[in-house]
């Protein structure tokens, strides 16, 4: 038999015993905190019907892995854990649930494995489904996310330096839509212009503007107006007071602005550190399904911004796409791979320094002799 | 937006909080025992290059899920955890390793979900790679498997009744090949005739004979001779002594018979209950990669045989298909789904009887109020 090419698929990797050890520890901490906050664990299939994933991810849909048509249903690997959760709620006719799920998702993205960007990677999701008083569930999701990040930061003093400081960028889909409307962006172009704006954390304004005008055909004056609004960010209280001075915007986005104000009141009541938050009008989140508050957590090092480690938001219409009963939802997804990479590196250094170079990879207590 | 068909793919299912609770407990027990026996945990990607899985599974290859060619590599979902492990050993140039892996595998089989037969299901694998004195690793794999099953049986007195008794069928690929040769089966037909013989635990001799003669074109006299040999089974010591009286067979299968005798000596030394074992000459295991001892564990109820819950064997040439360095391996795979189904059912009954019908599904201790 001829020898085949021995490698793993592009953008994937084997996880070795030393890595699994760190993962088990981290997943244990994460699960425990979710459960202490009343979340129940579920597991959904690694693939869904292709139709379940269709029209949920906007421009990112091109990254979905499809399975070959082998004479059965048309299937796709899950792209995230949010759409499967909405499908779960609809299928099981649940009207209320707090669930967490720790599982791998699949994206045919350009991998950058040295920066923790894979095609197969773990996410830890926490979501609250069901009717609740305005902003109560949203505030709770954010407070659980902070509890999560704080717990992970405190695993050891060694880790503490590694996960801090982090910052939570907040925006609201309705506020963003109001800005687009005010600037003159046509209804049908809002989602694609959103996707461009969302790149402002990685690309300079000139690139984003060029994409909007040259590629997407946005009028250049409209683009400039959009740029003026979306390039501002700052502490939530200051930002909200500043935006309230903009009468035309306030008229269009009264609901969103009140919701954000209420959210920060609740977060204060929940004793979540307010200085972690930034209201950032460039945060758009590319996915189609968000309807209300959206957020993203970034690690901030002294020299550079390391990148996003968590994200989420409210999605009130997704369950309704699968069911006659609308169930409002809000949730967050912890992109645990980057955190794990940081931990693995730290563990390795710690083990090497402690054991004089010898890393112990198992918890062996008894060896069967034979 | 039109509402899509809301269901999970055929042969898959959502796992609910109550099921996840049982799974976490069982996987915890399984992991702990593997680790106490010196095994290290790894994780491999859910898909492999299609070429990695080619020519490993015999007639079962048709059950492999392929991913659509979306302009990258040709990929397939893993069919088991054994071939990915051999690929892991080759890729990481390991010469010796004891590994365990608990993960889901994928088979486009006809699902029978009421009998625990899914298209996506968990396996718990334990394998020993590397050179060892004859039969030492084989005996250890079997003793760990028994330790595993005994531990799972002893989770509670309630469960004890459910997993016992089990029986371990043993055979040897070289012994089976010798039988085929002795009966006059041509070299090129051995694997396909093996697959037919392997069905003798589920189908009557007449069906199997018909398949061999009518479908596969085996001479009917040869088929009858094969039938005479492969329909015998019994306690290993008795069977070995009986087979040794067959001089032509002993001449052809001297190595296999000595290995089996040595294996049972080691199992006795390891204090594994000998009465669990049956030497069953119809056991063939369809997969192409086995080379030596093969085995299968079945649950035996007082009224009927419930089916296979574990299987494995020696595969000395598989790593060599991925590497210039041959690394002999032996391992077992615990088909944990059927055991989990039995446990879930028992937990449900237990919880209902204890709580008067109220099942507690989470470990909630603190509820955040907001």
From TrEMBL, chains A, B:
Q: Which E.C. number(s) belong to this protein?
A: 6.1.1.21
> In which residues is L-histidine bound?
80-82, 107, 123, 127, 285, 289-290
Concerning Gene3D superfamilies, the annotation shows: Bira Bifunctional Protein, Domain 2 (3.30.930.10)
Aminoacyl-transfer RNA synthetases class-II family profile domain spans which residues? 1-343
User: Which Pfam families does the record associate with it?
Assistant: tRNA-synt_His
One of the record's GO cellular component terms: cytosol
The enzyme's first-digit EC class, named in words, is ligase
The domain of life for this entry's organism is: Eukaryota
Instruction: List the molecular function annotations (GO) for this entry.
Output: histidine-tRNA ligase activity; RNA binding
Q: Which CDD domains match?
A: HisRS-like_core
GO BP? histidyl-tRNA aminoacylation; mitochondrial translation
**Reactions the enzyme catalyzes:** tRNA(His) + L-histidine + ATP = L-histidyl-tRNA(His) + AMP + diphosphate + H(+)
Q: Give the record's family classification.
A: Belongs to the class-II aminoacyl-tRNA synthetase family.
> Sorted alphabetically, which PANTHER family does this protein's record hold?
HISTIDINE--TRNA LIGASE, HISTIDYL-TRNA SYNTHETASE
Which protein is depicted?
histidine--tRNA ligase
| Source organism of the structure | Compsopogon caeruleus
